[in-house]
Design goal:
This protein is mainly α. It has two domains: about 45 residues; about 80 residues, no CATH class. Helix content is about 85%, strand content about 0%. The chain has six helices and no strands. The longest helix has 25 residues. It is extended.
């Protein structure tokens, strides 16, 4: 896939980076780091990511299908009928976007490492 680098492309980069309060260089660097992180997860820890996704989907199922308490909390909100589709969309986005899943996996890995360190210092 080739990117046509023209004035319009650069203007879009400038617009997005300005909205994010970054320079174009910082924005491109940030994108590169995110892409590199995603590639590392997909290439180096594919099995770990797959196991995490299974556990993640189990938790989502428990939250949105089986857990009546979570549904009761949503129903207590004044905008419950408006918020339900938002939660469903969030669930679909978080479950289907590999970039989001890889970020969540990074949190999972870091938390697991911290928990192992805590456990080993208690022994």
């Amino acid at each position: 896939m080739l990117i046509d680098v023209d004035d319009n492309f650069f203007n879009e980069l400038e617009e997005v980076s300005t909205l994010l309060d970054m320079t174009v260089g910082e924005y491109l660097e940030n994108l590169h780091e995110k892409n590199q992180s995603l590639k590392n997860v997909l290439l180096e820890d594919k099995e770990g990511l797959q196991e995490f996704v299974k556990k993640y989907h189990t938790v989502l199922d428990d939250l949105f299908i089986l857990n009546r308490e979570a549904l009761a909390i949503v129903n207590e909100n004044d905008d419950a009928e408006i918020m339900k589709p938002v939660f469903l969309k969030l669930s679909k986005i978080a479950s289907g976007d590999i970039t989001v899943l890889s970020k969540l996996y990074d949190v999972y890995v870091q938390t697991s490492k911290q928990q192992m360190i805590s456990s080993s210092t208690l022994e």
